[in-house]
Amino acid sequence: MNFTKMHGAGNDYVFIDGMTTTADWSDIARKVSDRHFGIGSDGLIVAANSDVANIRMRMWNSDGSESEMCGNGLRCFIKFVLDRKLLKGTPEVVLVETGAGILKATPRWDQGLVTTASVEMGIPELRINEIPVDIQEASPSNLSHLNKDLFSQLNIPSEELLFDSVIDFPDRSFTVTGVSMGNPHAVAFVDDDIADIDLSKYGPLMENHDAFPHRVNFHIANIIDSTRIVTRTWERGSGQTLACGTGACAIVVSGRLHGLLDETVTVEMPGGELIATWTGNGSVILEGPVAEIFQGQWSG
């Protein structure tokens, strides 16, 4: 089975053309993702045929669980399908069917190859039932820092938010805001340096907290100024990753709801920088570089 390994800001995935192939992708995801006995990656992404878009993207985490969406994976996916000519020509826009709906991607070309892609990541979902959140397992929201001017445009009752809710662990607490970008996210803006927080300890606790029945991606962030943040991520099903595209979007949405961030924000992650834009209405736009690492054949 031929594969390509790619990364976006260090968020690395193994890509396979599954348009004419069927397999136990969950099992393959676990095997190829293993960084000692496999190829090594944050997960597996498979190109498939679609009846409703130009192409379909399916994505599995490194633990074999299938996820709805991956922003960095989607940007790499565009390069994969176009460089491999799984779609004809050099399209200006590609419509991709994902578990989070049909998303529109705009590739950037250089000498016949895709070097970067801008993706419309969809409209963020803030309702607790859609994230989802079991509100009985979380503390009440604290709306004192809610940007009411922006929030008033969204036509969502405030009681349907998870906003600045305190999640307690034995030796510390995190104040989190819930956002879905087709997959669930909990965002915590913290005052202490994120480098000093033991994410390997608190990430699994947040991921598997009873407040999040589908588990959750957890992000801790320091705000540098209104146009730049620094963040670290614990991804559901994958653990600590160098970047998270849907997470970058969720963090910017949360920051905008707090009145802390401008419309366009540079999100600095351990693996590189992404740029996320959200006006407060409509889709979040995610931009950033993509790169191919190597190709090979998998026989495991």
SSE blueprint:
Layout (H helix, E strand, L loop, with lengths): L1 E7 L2 E7 L7 H9 L9 E6 L6 E7 L4 E2 L3 H13 L10 E5 L2 E10 L2 E8 L27 H4 L13 E5 L2 E9 L3 E6 L9 H9 L9 E9 L2 E8 L3 E3 L3 H13 L6 E6 L2 E6 L7 E5 L1 E7 L3
Parallel strand pairs: 2-3, 4-6, 11-12, 13-15
Antiparallel strand pairs: 1-2, 1-18, 3-4, 4-5, 6-7, 7-8, 8-17, 9-10, 10-11, 12-13, 13-14, 15-16, 16-17
The structural domain count equals 2
Architecture of the largest domain, according to CATH?
Roll
For the largest beta-sheet, the strand count, sense and barrel status come to: 18 strands, mixed
Find the CATH superfamily of the largest domain. Answer: Diaminopimelate Epimerase, Chain A, domain 1
Total strands: the figure is: 18
User: Averaged pLDDT, please?
Assistant: 96
State the separation between the terminal residues, measured CA to CA: 9 Å
As residue ranges, the low-confidence spans are none
- CATH class categorisation of the largest domain: Alpha Beta
